[in-house]
Please model this.
Amino acid sequence: MKRPLCPVALVITAIVFIYLRFFLTNYLYEIPDDQEKETGFVTGVVARKEARLSPSGENFNVIYVVPQNISIGKMKYIMCSLKEGDVYVPSVGEYVKITGKITPFKEVRNPGGFDSRLYYATLKIAFKIYNAEVVETDGREDFLRERLYELKMFFEKNLDNNPVLSDSDSAILKAMILGDKAFMDDDIKDMYKNSGIMHILAVSGLHISIIGMGLYKALRKCKLSHYIYTAVPIIVMYLYGEMCGVGSSSFRAICMFTIRLVAPLVGRTYDILTGLAIAEVLLILDCPLYLYNSGFLFSFCAVIGVTVVHPAMEELFGEKKMIIRSGIMLGLSIMISTLPIYMLYYFTYPLFSLISNMIIIPLVSVLMVAGILCLFMVGFTGAVPGVPAHLILLFYKTVCGVQTKLLGNTLYIGHAGEIKIACYCIIVCISLFYPKLRLRKKKKHSNIENYLRRALLPIAVAILICQPRPELMISALYVGQGDGIVIEDGRDRILIDGGSTSEKSVGRYSIIPYLKYRAIGSLDAAIVTHEDSDHISGLFEIMDDMEKGGIRIKRLILPDVAESSRGDNYRELERRATEIGIPVSYISTGEEISVGRSKFLCINPDKGMATEGANAYSTTLLMMRGEFKALFTGDVEEEGQENIRETIKSNSQIFKDITLLKVAHHGSKYTTDEEFLSMIRPKIALISCGEDNRYGHPHEEVLERLENVGAKIYRTDESGAVTIKIEDDRLETETFLNNK
Model:
């Protein structure tokens, strides 16, 4: 059989995948109750270490310890973030005792959110220790790995001190050449990711071809023994991988490079797919959870696109020796191979990445060579390679900046489940490999057959990215201590509030990922109930994202209150919206908003309402859609509560049979009183609050009141995101943590 290892690799991968579907929790470490405390200690050996940048701009060190005093199951390391400042940093291989705050990785609580617990499990890291301090050490070291770390720091210092390179240039070259992304600015990372060129920052095949193959060819010309010119490049690339931190893409590249060089020595011909299969099997046998690692999947799928899909595409569409056509065909091949990975982890696709990669990739080799020279040159001599490196990176920034702001660059494709991805893969395989799959072979294929096969590719893509919309869907996201509600009515979408006081960058890490997960590229309106930061902090981040070509807000709706009640946050919202071209409108009692087939009637605040606190003037909306009614109350209290009660009393028929109540002020006992609940008698009560919040929300008094009127209570602190769907007059409620 030709390439026998390829089907073996597929079978092993399938077995591991099926096993993980049923026994994934066996690989996820849970901190025992007796360990989960504010401070604790770990003794063990330092396996590796790295320098990082804190949010305050200070450098600090992270060490990875293989513990000896505790068992961490299938995990291998504990990540310890040392205190900032002048603290002792142990050597690699040193036996240490470390104290600090033991902290588990956060469990994802929203669809589309980053699952840090699973991600770090793929790296075999059990938990982290913050503000760690080394209290005991034996002074030993792993000589080789410590010298490699020092060499890496020497190279990074040379990049920082280069007279031509900016801080941003230096950070990008550290990521590209040394595998250290810790110093890259988030805006640069986003720009590279949104342009579809993030792959150039991974230590992978390009590095091997330039460094490893360059050394191999140079040694061959020296007429040395073939054992020497084979062994030396392999050893150098292994040491290079150790210095950079061996990730899945670098391990794959080094493994395939090793097989390529060793094959002639044992009388074999190198086959790229066999090398890929060996690397993949070694990785997943070492860590099965790599099948949930986006970097691992992207790396292997991209290589499959180049080596398997591209030749099949050329055969299907006919070979024509045109450079531009060949480049487009290669780009489409990689897109076809990696599109499922985008839908599993990123939920968007940079539509013009095909063009930008054709512009950018030809210069990557030049940039790599210039960057490598910058590692070794100090002082003004570093300016010689520094100038081309700076100019190329400046060119990249310009191209990416233009691309990300082009209308339609970001295609919001949303999330695809495993069944859709499986259907996509089957259809693509039939389209590309049908002649090889047939039992009876034909020498020629009819034109009709080829046309049908070609037509299957866009059909497969359409099936994968098609996102059916529910009639009505209301999602209360987990944003910690705050509010964030997304409402989808057909193809119309609005956001009611979006902020938090307990979760950092809640817009960036919770709200925006959810919107992308749902393939929402624009919001018809963002409604702000009031100006407290736990309701608006994430909105500012969405606006920042919009300015960079991200999710668009078509209208901002603020409560129409007196000038004296409009505080600094209110003014800043108005200013920021106007600055980036978002129309601002105002709402007060009696006014309506239409979203799809739903109507929202405002019942607070009264026009020009003057209050001392922002909570009192919270925009309160009665949503009506057929028999379904929902009441969204913000943080309404005091005068606002009185206004609402009066409105309900004078319009009692409208407020009968409320299906859903978004409980005011995160379940505070000072709101949602018995009189109010007896008027509306909600069937479902939704409480948005932070886990273990310092206010004790929701208060027991409110929970008792809700139970007394027969309301079914859902809490985001316990359930994560809560979603209510209405389809064909049938209501269904889902909680994210229970349905994972």
The domain at 472-739 is CATH 3.60.15.10 (Metallo-beta-lactamase; Chain A). The mean pLDDT is 90.
